[in-house]
Amino acid sequence: MWDTGRGGGGDDATALARTNVDWRETENSHIFTAEIPGVRKEEVKVEVEEGNVLRISGERTKAEEDVGDTWHRVERRRGRFMRRFRLPDNANMDEIKCSLENGVLTAAVPKRGQRLARNVRAIDIS
């Protein structure tokens, strides 16, 4: 399994590196939890690539500035972010459920039923 969504360098690229995602596996599903404070639902995409790659992307926008404002410190990150995760074959990519609450995106990918045996045929031993 791989994760290619970590970037670095430059103002916009720092947002890539700062999108923290936890991936946990339960008996019935794979659950992804991403911290994306200040990002609205309309600014986030959860997509499936190549059949079994989950992609979480979006953009943190810059706050509106008034002409007379004086900024003393800017610590909140802005810019685009993207994270990718290759899921195992047991992931049911057609049944993904997502929610965004209090700046935390949760994506639940259910597991397919385990197949015990595929076309197993007994062979007599002589």
TrEMBL record:
<dbReference type="InterPro" id="IPR008978">
    <property type="entry name" value="HSP20-like_chaperone"/>
</dbReference>
<feature type="domain" description="SHSP">
    <location>
        <begin position="12"/>
        <end position="126"/>
    </location>
</feature>
<dbReference type="InterPro" id="IPR031107">
    <property type="entry name" value="Small_HSP"/>
</dbReference>
<comment type="similarity">
    <text>Belongs to the small heat shock protein (HSP20) family.</text>
</comment>
<dbReference type="Pfam" id="PF00011">
    <property type="entry name" value="HSP20"/>
</dbReference>
<protein>
    <recommendedName>
        <fullName>SHSP domain-containing protein</fullName>
    </recommendedName>
</protein>
<keyword id="KW-0346">Stress response</keyword>
<dbReference type="InterPro" id="IPR002068">
    <property type="entry name" value="A-crystallin/Hsp20_dom"/>
</dbReference>
